[in-house]
Amino acid sequence: MLNDHQINGQGQPGYYEKFEKGVAAGTPNDLVYFQGWQWQSHAVAGSLQELDDRAARDKWTLPWPTDEAYELQTKFRAKRYLSTSNIGTMVMFYVKEYFDRAGVAYPKPDWTIADFQDAARKVTRTDDKGQVYGYQWNPGYLRNTPWWRMNGRVEWDRIAEPKQANWAATEVVEALQWQLVDSQYAMKVSPTQATLEQSQEANRLEFGNVAMKVEGPWFLPRMWGAKAKRPGGTPFDVQLLPTGRTGKKVHLNLVEGQVMAKATKVPDAAWDLMKWIAADEGQKRIAEGGRMCNVPETNRRFWLPLAKQRYNVANAEAFLKAIDTGTINLVGSVTEAVLDRDAELGRTLDRMRYGQLPAKDAMEALQPKIQQVLDATWAKQGGR
Q1: How many CA atoms does the CB half-sphere of 64 hold within 13 Å?
Q2: Contact 211, 135 (CB under 8 A)
Q3: Is it true that domain 15-88+254-319 has CATH number 3.30.1360.120?
Q4: Could you tell me the pLDDT band of residue 7, with boundaries at 50, 70 and 90?
């Protein structure tokens, strides 16, 4: 029998630290809810239970589609550890009002990066109702990843445990320059960092005067329904991200779920609970709670009808279509947090956001620092 201590809930302060302390003390939670890009270091440390034998015994494959995002975030070194309970794909939100006022067509499924940039430029305007920005950029590494990958560049030689970094590549520089620098300071289609800091309730998509932003399903309640940030809600819809120069789309698919502690004393009960969460009864509960379900089929049956009804989003299907081109930025013992700490990744991107450094200079300085972190990590592991 599993108790509240044994099934930990993410979101509490120090959540992952509590798990680590439990492992060190020999009293870890039996099941732990992890983001799909956060658990791999615990597998390296031997703290997690592999699931392959139980899955093969029970012929259980439901939570594991073979798409790249699922494979990268549920398997590590060819072994399965995480059972998917929910996902979150990121798509383009857009406010209909601002497109209508500018006489610009809504984003279409086959739009390109050039179409996106053109729409951002045309929708940006000052009229009798005030300033409207065409686009609100996202900070950080994770959320900007699709913008260069849709143009054919991956910033690593491989996403899982990379050995080589490609951060100074032309496609990475070009994407970050437009997203974090030019959209604010040259094109002026986005609120600047300084403008955003003036108020937490202005110059943001959910509060008004911004036309487009890339977000996930967690953002839906901010746009429509009882928790909407604008009185009465904001009439909006969503669309897939633009098609890049490769002729392909790329979306983030953030996979989350449960891992089992190696030291659990009730592995069978923990496994049964994993299966319950991943199957219909558990997935109904997840959809009712507002999260996307774990796989396309359960999302279509449980989450999609609720999302359309609750949030007045006509093209909610875009969240499901994004699964087909889903990926993640990086998995392994080197995480984004490690790169922020040891290579100043976050600080470098911050300097770009504040208009202090162009992307080319930033990435040329960043590349050797990231490579040094990778080299040091592999040296410690004997160059596996």
Answers
A1: 20
A2: yes
A3: no
A4: very low
What is the DSSP-derived secondary structure letter of residue 251? Answer: E
Separation of alpha carbons 254 and 315, rounded Å? 20
Nearest of 88, 183, 196 to residue 142 by alpha carbon: 88
- Give the span between the Cα atoms of 158 and 332, in whole angstroms: 11
End-to-end CA distance of the chain: 39
The residues spanned by each domain of the chain are 15-88+254-319, 91-249+330-380
- Asked whether 147 and 175 are in contact (CB, 8 A), the reply is yes
> Are 244 and 151 contacting, i.e. CB atoms less than 8 angstroms apart?
yes
Q: Count the residues in the chain.
A: 384
Q: Which amino acid is at 277?
A: I
The per-residue b/e assignment along 118-136, b for 16 or more CB within 10 angstroms, e otherwise, is ebbbbbbbeeeeeebbbbb
For residue 87, what is the enclosing H or E element? strand 82-89
**Tokens describing residue 209:** 């005067």
Among 86, 1, 78, residue whose Cα is nearest residue 36: 86
Nearest-CA neighbor of 92 among 136, 133, 152, 34? 136
CATH 3.40.190.10 fits 91-249+330-380, yes or no: yes
Element (H, E) at 365: helix 359-380
251 in Cβ contact with 319 (< 8 Å) = no
Q: Which residue has the tokens 């099941």?
A: 31
Residues 360/173, Cβ–Cβ less than 8 Å: yes
Q: What are the pLDDT digits (tens) for 176-201?
A: 999 999 999 999 999 999 999 999 99
With a threshold of 0.85, does the pTM exceed it? yes
